Amino acid sequence: MKHYAWKNRIQDTSSTTGTGTLTLDGSPAAGFNGFDEFTDGDEVMYAIEDGNNREEGIGTIGNLTTELSRDTIISSTNGG
Fold it and tell me: Shortest CA distance to 75 belongs to which of 51, 47, 50?
């Protein structure tokens, strides 16, 4: 059974580039919670923004909540 996690006001940064798994910096923005609100294996909906570039998808939290795999890309500004 899959476990989908829903949390409000989660925002973190990542210096990861490219299309692979994101390494989360563990630095939530002021007024936000970090990804440590989740548990490894939780599947989450995410949005990534970098300037005018955007991607939405479903990913899995891993490596003691420091990584987010990008399992399913729902939409992106580069066409997927």
Answer: 47
Higher pLDDT, 18 or 61: 61
User: Tell me: the pLDDT tens digits for 22-31?
Assistant: 999 988 888 9
- DSSP lists the bridge partners of residue 52 as none
Separation of CA 11 from chain center: 9
Residue with tokens 């003691």: 64
Q: What six digits make up the tokens of 72?
A: 């399913």
Buried/exposed 40-74: b ≥16 CB within 10 Å, e otherwise: eebbbebebeeeeeebebbbbbeeebbbbbbeebe
Q: Do residues 7 and 29 make contact, with C-beta atoms less than 8 angstroms apart?
A: no
The pLDDT tens digits for 37-46 are 899 999 999 9
